[in-house]
Amino acid sequence: MKKKYVPSLQLMKSDHTSKSQKTALIIGPGGLRGAYNAGVAVGLGRALGTDWVDGVYASSVGVYMAAFFAAKQFHPIEHVWRNLVHGDQLVDITKLSQGRNWLDLEYLMQVLNQEDKNTRLDVSEVISSSVAVTFTLTRKRDGESVYVQPEEDNLFPLMTASCAVPWMHPPVKIDGERYIDGGLSDPLSVDKAFADGYDKLIVVDETPVGSLPSTYTMWWLSFLFASPLSKKVANYGHRNQSIKRQAAENNSVIFIRPKDELPMNSFMDTSEKRINATFDRGLMDAQRKSDEIKDIK
Q1: What is the mean pLDDT of the chain?
Q2: CA-wise closest residue to 67 among 124, 140, 2
Q3: CB half-sphere exposure, 248, CA atoms < 13 A
Q4: Whole-angstrom Cα distance, residue 34 to residue 146?
Q5: Residue 165 near residue 157, CB atoms below 8 Å
Q6: What is the pTM of this model?
Q7: How far apart are CA 265 and CA 275, in angstroms?
Q8: Residue 192 confidence (pLDDT)
Q9: CB neighbours (10 Å) of residue 204?
Q10: Rounded to 5 degrees, what are φ and ψ at 202?
C-alpha cells in the first residue's frame, strides 16, 4: 500500500550570504485588501527585478505575493488578483452549504496549480530562488509564531496554513500540529528579519498611514475570545500598531503603504472594480518608492 504523504515542516534556519548589507522585503496580511500589497510586489518587481532583495517574509495572504515575487512571476500575481478573486470565486459564505470553506483556499490552490502560464506558480523557481522565502504561521494550540522556509513538497500546505483565517477556514494540520493565519501572531515580521541578520527592511502594509487596524481584524478576533488563542490575539491591534510605530522610527525600515483610505471597504470586499483600483494604488506607490529602494544597495 502506498504510504500517504504528510508534508514535513522545516523550521527556518538563518543562512545568509556575506554581502555587506542584506535587504528583506516584508509583505503583510490584509485579506482581499491584499490587492494593494500585490500591486506593490508587482510594481517593485517590474521596476527593480529581485536582485536587490535577499529575503522575503510574509504572513497570511502575503505568502502568495512572496512566492510569486521570489519566482520572478510578476504577471501571474496581477492576473490572479485582477481576474480570479472577486465576486464569489474566493470568498462566499454560501459555499458552506456545498461542503466547502467560506474562504475557499482550495480553489486558490487549484488556480496556482493549473497548466496555465497566467496563473501557475513555478514551485521549483520559488525554492531555487536567490531570494530566501519565509512564511509565518500561527500554532493554534498556543498562538505562537512559527517561521518556515518552504520546500517543494510543503509549499502549498504552508501557504494554506498561513492564510487559514479562523471561522472562515479550518486549521491546517502539518506534522501533527494545527496552524492558522500567520497574521494573527506576527502580521509584519520586522523583529524576526532583524534577528535573522537583515540590515534593511522594505515593509509593505495595506493599512493607511495613521490608521487603526483594519476593521476585519477586530471582527474575527471577537469570535476567538472563548478559544485558547484569546490571550494571544486579544491585543492584536495594539501589537500591530506597536510594530508599525517602532519600525517607522527605525532608519533601516522603508514603509510602502497608502497615504489615505483604499477603495476597498473591508478585507471581505469582493468588488472587482474596487479590488482592481486597490491593486493600481499599490502599483503607483511602488513606482513612487522604487528610486529610494534602488539606492539602498
Answers
A1: 86
A2: 124
A3: 11
A4: 21
A5: no
A6: 0.88
A7: 10
A8: 96
A9: 31
A10: -110, 115
Check: CB of residue 277 under 8 Å from CB of residue 32: no
Q: pLDDT digit string (tens) for 217-253? A: 554 554 554 465 665 565 566 666 677 777 677 889 9
Q: What are phi and psi of 256, to 5 degrees?
A: -120, 110
Give phi and psi for 148, each to the nearest 5.
-135, 135
CB-based contact 225:234 (threshold 8 Å)? yes
Let me know if 49 is exposed, middle or buried by CB neighbors in 10 A (0-12, 13-18, 19+).
exposed
Q: 165 to each of 41, 178, 271, how far by Cα in Å?
A: 22, 13, 20
